[in-house]
Amino acid sequence: MDWNRIEGNWKQFTGKVKEQWGQLTDDDLAAINGQREQLEGKIQERYGLAKDKAREAVDEWRLRQNA
């Protein structure tokens, strides 16, 4: 699934994002508003991941959304 589709349907994906990254708050998800870079940044912040690891995690999650 391409990121434009996720961004366009962000409200529908927030539950799936919270399932994957439970440390993200509703306020975080509202601030992210579908922006991939914002999501990666919040994951880095909350989970202490390096930028490349956060990007990989988001890529893996995005690919699983096709299933």
Summary keywords:
single chain; 67 residues; mainly alpha; Protein Yjbj, Chain: A; 5 helices; 75% helix; globular
Write structural notes for this entry:
It is a single chain. The chain is mainly α and 67 residues long. It has one domain: YjbJ (Protein Yjbj, Chain: A), CATH 1.10.1470.10. It has five helices and no strands. The radius of gyration is 11 Å and the shape is globular. The protein starts with a helix and ends with a helix. The relative contact order is 0.17. The model has no long low-confidence stretch (mean pLDDT 94).
SSE diagram, text form:
Layout: H1 3-8, H2 10-20, H3 26-32, H4 36-47, H5 51-64
Helix pairs in contact: 3-4, 4-5
Terminal CA distance reads 9 Å
Domain count, please report it.
Answer: 1
Task: Quickly name the level 1 CATH class.
Answer: Mainly Alpha
At the third CATH level, what is the topology name?
Protein Yjbj, Chain: A
| Cα-atom radius of gyration | 11 Å
The dominant shape is: globular
Which structural class best describes the helix and strand composition?
mainly alpha
The named CATH superfamily:
YjbJ
Corresponding CATH architecture: Orthogonal Bundle
Uncertain stretches: none
How many distinct beta strands? Answer: 0
Count helical runs: 5
Helix and strand element order: HHHHH
Calculate the mean pLDDT score and round it: 94
Sheet-strand content, in percent, reads under 5%
Helical residues, percent: over 70%
Query: How would a textbook summarize the main sheet?
Result: none
